[in-house]
Design goal:
Alpha-Beta Plaits; alpha+beta; about 10% strand; about 300 residues; two-stranded antiparallel sheet; FtsX_ECD; cell membrane; 4-stranded antiparallel sheet
C-alpha cells in the first residue's frame, strides 16, 4: 500500500512538472554525454598506447661514413664490425634488465626493407639515394617501454653511436593532443554536471513547494520524512535515469557510425574503442547519474521539508 502510494505521488509530481523534468533529462543527457566522451577518449589513448608501445623500439643509429653532427662520430667513419659488437656487449652487460632483444640492421637492409618502401626508387627531396647514403643501426626491444631514458643515458655517449631515438617520440605529440582533448571534455562535463545538480535540486524544490499543503497534511497524519521525501527523490532519479540512458545510446551510436563504421575501416593499423567499450562504461554512467540526482534531491529536500 505504502509502495503504491509513493509511486502514485511520484507520477503526480512528474505530470505537474513535465517541463522541468524534461530540462533535468536534457541536462543529464548532455552532461553524461561529455563524461562518456572523455572516458572513451582516455580509453582510446590507453588502447593505442598499449598496442603501439608493445611494438615500438629504441633505434640506436650508428655513425655514418662522412660528416656527422655528433661528437661521437668525430672520426668520420662508420664503426667497424668489432666496434658494433662492443656496443652490443655493452647493451647486454649494462642493460640486460631493460633490453629484451637486439637486432642489427645494416644500411643495405634498411635501404631495401624500409627506405625504398617509404620513398620509391630511393628518391628523397629531389635526390636519388643509395644504400651507401644510409647508416647501420641497432633496434632494441625493451622489456618496459618507459625505460627509454636509462638506455639513452648508457648509449648516448658511446663512441660509434650517433643518436639514440625512441620511436615513442613519434606518437607522443598525438597522445598529447588527445590528452588535451580529454581535459577539455572533462572540464565541460564537470560544468554540465554542476548545472545538472543545481537544476535537479531547483526542480525538486519547486515540486515540493507546489505541493506544500499535501506534504503538511501527510506530516499531520503521521507520515515519516522519508515517505514524504521519497516521491520527490524518485522524480529526479527517473529524469536522470532516462537522461543517462539516452547519453549511453548516443555514445553507442557515435561509436558505431563514426568509429567502427568509418575510422576503423579507414585506419586499420590503429586499434579503436568499440560498442563493447561503451557497454563497459555505461553502467558507471547510469549509476553515477542516479547517485548525483538522488544526492542533489536529498540535500534540497532536507533544507526545504523540515520536520
Amino acid at each position: 500500500m505504502r509502495f503504491r502510494f509513493v509511486l502514485s505521488e511520484t507520477w503526480t509530481s512528474i505530470k505537474r512538472n513535465g517541463s522541468m523534468i524534461l530540462s533535468v533529462m536534457l541536462v543529464t543527457f548532455i552532461s553524461f554525454l561529455f563524461i562518456g566522451a572523455s572516458v572513451l577518449m582516455q580509453a582510446q589513448i590507453t588502447k593505442a598506447k598499449g598496442t603501439w608501445y608493445d611494438k615500438v623500439e629504441v633505434v640506436v643509429w650508428l655513425c655514418p661514413d662522412g660528416t656527422s653532427q655528433s661528437a661521437n662520430c668525430a672520426s668520420g667513419k662508420a664503426p667497424t664490425t668489432e666496434e658494433i659488437m662492443n656496443i652490443q656487449d655493452t647493451i647486454k652487460e649494462e642493460l640486460h634488465n631493460e633490453v629484451s632483444k637486439i637486432t642489427y640492421v645494416s644500411k643495405q637492409q634498411f635501404f631495401d626493407d624500409t627506405f625504398t618502401k617509404q620513398y620509391p626508387g630511393g628518391v628523397y627531396q629531389g635526390r636519388t639515394l643509395t644504400a651507401d647514403d644510409m647508416q647501420d643501426s641497432l633496434r632494441l626491444k625493451l622489456t618496459n617501454a618507459e625505460k627509454y631514458q636509462q638506455v639513452s643515458e648508457v648509449l648516448s655517449g658511446k663512441t660509434g653511436v650517433e643518436e639514440v631515438q625512441d620511436q615513442r617520440q613519434i606518437f607522443e605529440p598525438v597522445f598529447a593532443v588527445l590528452n588535451r582533448g580529454t581535459a577539455v571534455t572533462v572540464v565541460l562535463a564537470a560544468v554540465m554536471v554542476l548545472v545538472a545538480i543545481m537544476l535537479t535540486g531547483t526542480t525538486i524544490r519547486m515540486s515540493a513547494a507546489s505541493r506544500k499543503n499535501e506534504t503538511e497534511i501527510m506530516r499531520l497524519v503521521g507520515a515519516s520524512n522519508w515517505i514524504i521525501q521519497l516521491p520527490f527523490i524518485l522524480e529526479g532519479v527517473i529524469a536522470s535515469l532516462i537522461g543517462s540512458i539516452l547519453s549511453c545510446a548516443a555514445l553507442a551510436g557515435i561509436v558505431k557510425v563514426f568509429v567502427e563504421g568509418s575510422l576503423a575501416q579507414t585506419i586499420t593499423w590503429m586499434p579503436f574503442v568499440n560498442i563493447a567499450t561503451v557497454l563497459l562504461i555505461s553502467p558507471g554512467l547510469i549509476v553515477g547519474a542516479i547517485l548525483l540526482s538522488a544526492i542533489a534531491s536529498l540535500i534540497s529536500l532536507r533544507k526545504y521539508l523540515k520536520a
